[in-house]
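Reviewer 2 asked us to include a model.

Predict the structure of this chain.
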Amino acid sequence: MLSDRKRAELERELAKTISSLEGRQSRQLLKILGDPPKLDDVTLELWETMGKEMLGVLTPATINTSLLAAENVVNSIPIGVNWDMVNQRAASWASTHNTRVVREMYGNTNQATRDMVADFYTQGLSVGDLRRRLQGRLGAMHSEMVAVTEVTAAAVEGGRIVADELAAEGVTMIESWVTARDERVCIICAPLDGKVLGDGWTRMDGPPAHIRCRCDTAYKLPPMERAS
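Predicted model (structure tokens):
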């Protein structure tokens, strides 16, 4: 489990990097669309290139976050793990997870761009209107949303990698849901705070349970049985 300070630092760094990339991509997209905008040159290859650029940002950041979270869990217990396996699993998870996230992200942006261009002609939008709408999808708010959500996903995965590695060795960790415990905690997550895995939630439920979810998971060893 990461400290609030470390999470905030990782979120800021990732959001800044994503914002820089998306700003460049939105300018490139507007240039390709032209004035008046046409979709002829907005090809599938363009979206694939943009997606690869985003993967280049997300993958190292989420691997690093996962490993930091894994290290924190290991440091909290008197048991070691095979770090080669932890590193391999973090890289494998990041590749699979981020590919899915990026495919959905740019698939949605592709469709949104097509809708915006259609609105340009049917609703009399200006190129400035188109630019503002596009920047709403590839701008600061979107960058922050992605950063918060993906830092949460990576931090949680780091803890689970350690828990699963220990489980394979016969050591079952107790996993519990932990919210940020502030006024921004949502009605989805608030009732789950402190509950152990299986008590009203499964790993399929999260964290993250939703976009911008800031929850995490905590781990502890089960209490030792008293000798009879």
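The radius of gyration is 21 Å. DSSP finds five helices and two strands in the chain. We have added this to the supplementary material.
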